[in-house]
């Protein structure tokens, strides 16, 4: 389940974001969270698993018709393609009229997700 970031979740968000190689330093983590808070079109969502534990985080930038995935990070125990697909499904439900896109690291996963959804429809 996607949960929109709020300040109460800062330590959890920083812990999950720290799984991204470029975000190991506290100052970088704080700057990253601040970047999302500075503009309403940028949103951080935390991912809660079936046990209600936070196991992932995804950063998106929303435009009129595009959801641009900037980052996605999962705790080691949750690193699974199916979890990523669940997150993409939830984002797609949240923004049903938007096209899902990603940066160079995330785009291949989105392509696999789209292919899976196409197979489900057929």
CATH third-level topology = Aminopeptidase
- Fraction of residues in helix: 40-55%
Strand content: 25-35%
Query: Over the alpha carbons, how many angstroms does the gyration radius reach?
Result: 14 Å
Architecture, according to CATH? 3-Layer(aba) Sandwich
Structural class: alpha+beta
- The shape, in one word, is globular
Q: What is the CATH superfamily?
A: Gcn5-related N-acetyltransferase (GNAT)
Q: Which CATH class?
A: Alpha Beta
Set down the secondary structure blueprint.
Blueprint: E1 2-4, H1 10-17, H2 26-37, E2 42-48, E3 54-62, E4 66-74, H3 81-94, E5 99-102, H4 107-121
Parallel strand pairs: 4-5
Antiparallel strand pairs: 1-2, 2-3, 3-4
Which keywords apply here?
alpha+beta; 122 residues; Aminopeptidase; five-stranded mixed β-sheet; 4 helices
Summarize the entry for a quick read.
The protein has 122 residues and is of the alpha+beta class.
Can you put this structure into words, describing what you see?
- This protein has 122 residues and is an alpha+beta fold.
- It has one domain (2-121): Aminopeptidase.
- It is built from four helices and five strands, in the order βααβββαβα.
- The protein has helices at 10-17, 26-37, 81-94, 107-121, and strands at 2-4, 42-48, 54-62, 66-74, 99-102.
- The protein has a five-stranded mixed beta sheet, with helices on both faces.
- The two termini are 26 Å apart.
- The relative contact order is 0.15.
- The mean pLDDT is 93.
